[in-house]
Amino acid sequence: MRASTVILALLSLASLPAGLSEGTGLAQQSQAPPRPVMPAQDGGVREVLESIVVPPIPNAPFSATLATEWARSTAGGATITFVNQRHIARDASGRIYEERWALVPKGSDTKSRIQWIQIADPSRHTLFNCNMLALVCDLLVYDPAPDLAAATPPPSANGPLRGNRGFVQTESLGNRILDGANTTGTRVTITLNPGVMGNDQPVTQLRETWRDDALAINLLSIRSGPLIGTQTFTVTELDPNPPDAQLFEPPAGFQIRDRRAVLPPSQ
Predict the structure, then answer these.
(1) Which of 192, 203, 235, 241 has a Cα-to-Cα distance from 225 of 20 to 30 A?
(2) In whole angstroms, what is the distance from residue 99 CA to residue 88 CA?
(3) Residue-wise pLDDT tens for the chain (267 aa)?
(4) Residue 144: burial class (beta carbons within 10 Å; 0-12, 13-18, 19+)
C-alpha cells in the first residue's frame, strides 16, 4: 500500500498508558503529551487504528462528522472503550480534508484534542500533513492507488483463502437509510485456521459496512475480532453541499516543510 494512502486511511490515536500510538506513521514522532519519567520496562505494545477511507473522486462533495468508538474486553469481563469525533470533507475537485483527534476513554473527564490536519489534492499530487502542536505542515507526495482514486468498492469474495489459511464469506445485508442517505450493507466473515496467527483454535473476524455509493464512502463501518475488539466508525451530520474552500489550504502561520521525493508520482 502506498504511503499516502496509508496516511489518509489511519486514525490518530492518543499516546495513552496502554501503549497506543499515533495512527499515522508520520504522527508517531512527537505527539505524546508530557508524561512522568518512568524506568524502562519490559513488554508493552503499540497499535494503530484504521479509519474509513475517503477516495479523491470529483463531483461528489460533502462534509461530515466521523465518530469512532473502539471497545475491547479484558480477561475479567470488563470492557475498555475509547472514543473521538473529527471533521472530514471533500470538495468538487476531489480534494480531501481530514482532522485527527486523540482517542480518549469513554465517559471520562479527559478531553480530546486535535493533533493533525491532513489535506490531499489529487490534481497536484500533494498532501499537507499539519502538526497542530508544532505548527508545522509537511508537504508530501499524494499518489493514491488506482482503485482508491476510482472509488472502486472492495470485491466480493467467497471461498478458501490462499495457502489453506481459512475461509471467507461475503453476504449482502440489503439497503438502509443512514443520516438521510441510502446505503448498501455488506458483511464479510473471515475464519482463520489454527496456526495462522499463533491461534490454537479457529479465529473469526467480522467486518460490516454500509456504503453510500453516491459518495463512495462507508457511512457505518464495524470491524471486530479477538485481537482488535470492536471498532465502530459512524458518519453523522452529512452535508452534500460544497465545503468551505478555506479548509483545503494549510493553516495560516504554519511553517511549510517540503518533504516530497525527487521522483514524480506514478501515473
Answers:
(1) 235
(2) 6
(3) 444 433 333 333 333 333 333 343 222 233 333 444 556 678 776 666 778 999 999 999 999 999 999 999 998 899 999 999 999 999 999 999 999 999 999 999 999 999 999 999 999 999 999 999 999 999 999 998 887 877 777 777 899 999 999 999 999 999 999 999 999 999 999 999 999 999 999 999 999 999 999 999 999 999 999 989 999 999 999 999 999 999 999 999 999 999 987 555 555
(4) buried
CB hemisphere CA count around 16 (13 angstroms): 19
Q: Quick check: helix, strand or coil at residue 28?
A: helix
- Measured CA angle at 44 (ends 29, 100), to 5 deg: 40
Rounded CA-CA distance 86/50 in Å is: 14
Burial of 135 (C-beta count, 10 Å sphere; 0-12/13-18/19+): exposed
Q: What is the pTM of this model?
A: 0.81
Domains and CATH numbers, the chain: 3-31+45-153+230-258 (2.50.20)
- What one-character DSSP code corresponds to residue 161? P
In a 13 Å sphere around the CA of 42, the CA atoms on its Cβ side amount to: 0
